[in-house]
């Protein structure tokens, strides 16, 4: 694990512990409204930590699930009737083998994808003037990115439709506005304007798009549906 990743996880652990203590204090004082706010904040921290753990280990979610399944089966074997123990033991052996397979696979290095950076560099070089970052192809949830002179325009359209379909939730819209997006056209578009003429601008946009993928959405829910479209 990289030093920065360790530091981030430690910071989130500390924040979660602090929020949990605050929530428990509110519950003890029967201030359930404030306790609920702390609960939501803890859920947000947990999501960020889950993302970081997945960055550390690509199969983190699957390993967590298998670990819980193994623990459950081990507990059940101890209290099961004799006729069920053989079946549970077979299930336990299978889950342990699945976990071992995941652990073996996680040791293989996966090539890093530089697609977003490459497309942003093409735009800076004047090779293309626009592209579309598709978040969820099945729901037509996309961010349209266009360069006009030295300004980059990022647009997420059809906000009303996505809200009705729960593709975009209130918390996600709030997260996007915190990143600098503003609601336009009767709140049916989220738009952001950013300077774009230097390598520093490229890096800033790349970081923003990464935050949208990892913080606003949960990247594993977008697996298989996210891609880039552009015309050279």
In short:
This protein is of the alpha+beta class and about 230 residues long. The protein is built from eight helices and six strands; from the N terminus they run αααααβββααββαβ. Helices cover about 60% and strands about 15% of the residues.
Write the SSE topology.
Elements: H1 3-28, H2 32-56, H3 60-79, H4 82-106, H5 115-124, E1 130-136, E2 141-148, E3 151-156, H6 159-164, H7 170-178, E4 182-184, E5 189-195, H8 199-216, E6 227-230
Antiparallel strand pairs: 1-2, 1-6, 2-3, 3-5, 4-5
Question: If strands are numbered along the chain, what order do they take across the biggest sheet?
Answer: 4-5-3-2-1-6
Low-confidence stretches: 106-114
CATH architecture classification name of the largest domain = 2-Layer Sandwich
Q: For this entry, what is the oligomeric state of its chains?
A: single chain
Q: What name is given to the CATH topology of the largest domain?
A: Yope Regulator, Chain: A
Q: Which structural class do the helices and strands define?
A: alpha+beta
Report on this structure.
- This protein is of the alpha+beta class and 232 residues long.
- It folds into two domains: 3-106, no CATH class; 115-230, Yope Regulator, Chain: A, CATH 3.30.1460.
- It has eight helices and six strands; from the N terminus they run αααααβββααββαβ.
- The protein has helices spanning 3-28, 32-56, 60-79, 82-106, 115-124, 159-164, 170-178, 199-216, and strands spanning 130-136, 141-148, 151-156, 182-184, 189-195, 227-230.
- It has a six-stranded antiparallel β-sheet with strand order 4-5-3-2-1-6.
- Helix 1 (3-28) runs antiparallel to helix 2 (32-56), helix 3 (60-79) runs antiparallel to helix 4 and helix 5 runs antiparallel to helix 8.
- The longest helix is centred in the N-terminal third of the chain and has 26 residues, at 3-28.
- The protein is extended, with a radius of gyration of 22 Å.
- The two termini are 38 Å apart.
